[in-house]
Amino acid sequence: MAQAKTGDTVKVHYTGKLDNGTVFDSSAYREPLEFTIGEGQLIADFEQAVIDMNPGESKTIKIPYDNAYGPHREEMLIVVDRSQFPGDLEPKIDQKLQVRHPDGEESVATVVDVNEANVTLDANHPLAGKDLTFEIQLSEIA
Q1: Which of 13, 19, 99, 101 is the most buried if burial means most Cβ atoms within 10 Å?
Q2: Is 87 inside a domain boundary?
Q3: What are 90-107's pLDDT values in tens digits?
């Protein structure tokens, strides 16, 4: 039976969990995830874990945050004066907003604090600072 190798396009089912067991993503109720090993489309450790797997085989891997979405960085917390928001926008905790950085890049930030004067946004990836566990099953090598 063929084993997955770098350059192969593969399909996998997966479930991603945090250390406390919370599922943050899963392909359980949709089509398997398709990607080409080695093209850098996914977290490198995830891609690497699929190498040498056979179709139908399953494994569980743990990816430390440094190899996933990196540490949660305090400098990615942005305090914005409420006057910078459109008058019809009422920011709420956990709301996702599109923000433009000084360099012109755009990203999504999460509202983490709101008071009368300011709104604090967190521009870190939602999984930054978190170790990730993935249950992976190789469905097929295309």
Answers
A1: 13
A2: yes
A3: 999 999 998 877 888 888
